[in-house]
Amino acid sequence: MEAIEVEGLRRRYEAAGRSGGGGGFEAVREVSFSVREGEIFALLGTNGAGKTSTVEVLEGLARPNAGTVRVLGFDPFTERAYVRPRTGVMLQEGGFPSELTVAETATMWAGVTSEAGPPGEALERVGLGGRADVRVKQLSGGERRRLDLALALIGRPEVLFLDEPTTGMDPEGRQEVAELVRGLRAEGTTVLLTTHYLEEAEQLADRLAIMQAGRIVATGTPEQVVAERPSRISFRLPAGVAAERLPLGVPAAVQGRTVSVRTRELQSALTELLLWARESGVTLENLQARSASLEEAFLEIAQAGDRADAGVAERKEARA
Ligand SMILES: Nc1ncnc2c1ncn2[C@@H]1O[C@H](COP(=O)(O)OP(=O)(O)OP(=O)(O)O)[C@@H](O)[C@H]1O
User: Fold this and answer.
1) What is the mean pLDDT of residues 196-206?
2) What is the pTM of this model?
3) How much is the ipTM here?
4) Helix-strand-coil percent breakdown of the chain, rounded to 5?
5) Among 15, 45, 118, 194, whose Cα sits 20 to 30 Å from the Cα of 204?
């Protein structure tokens, strides 16, 4: 069953001082995706792509301008009473009173959460068990994110929204949160997260969507998104061999003595290259062949989007 369903979602911010009609800014433009029960789904995109604007609608904090959104089968805005107790939300800025201690904050939060578990258990889970008596204002940025996460977990949610959960954490902290999120998935929790750490998304997400200027421009499993991008072969140009003599059908870029080739046919290009090297009696030093990473795929998509935006701006200028 689908835990989250988004169909044709649009969200517009009205220009200051006016409502309805034209003007304003459309931050989310016809976004559709779904997240299955027990799945980890990552929403990725450059700054301002529309991730938070989308997630806020799913959290019931804002009403869509168009389209439909369902969380556990309910409208999170109009049927908030059914959805809210079953979801956990970790916002980008928790904003809790900084004079309270970690334990007091968790206890206070448990008091306003229906079917809350023991606050201490949630703190232990995020590795803050030993920091219970520390005031919130004395926590590091990464520890505050952990506290935000503990609060999101207190109601033992079926669906968990994590908006940039690991921002400000050191690599070890990020790894711990990744482990925790995997543990939650094993228990059947559905997780929707936004992140700027692409490696994190690649390792953690069952499926993901990349947003650009309010639209989804790529979606699928991390492997599917990456598979659409060319792989890369690189090696040192053997002494006495001119780059033009290389057998690769695809244009190779030569920088200094390093040759790099981008290809969608990694296996056949590599076979061709290795056969040529054997026949020519040359050694290809520093030979590397690898599929694109999610980071490369992301950058390529983002740059293509920027070029498209520039094209639109140019056309608009030409018409003006
Ligand atoms: N309250 C608001 N009023 C007007 N415009 C807004 C408002 N909130 C966000 N925006 C605009 O909507 C766009 C999308 O913002 P959003 O915060 O959803 O992006 P994001 O993908 O979450 O970015 P980030 O990665 O920086 O958090 C941005 O251009 C932003 O400036």
Assistant:
1) 92
2) 0.83
3) 0.96
4) 40, 25, 35
5) 118
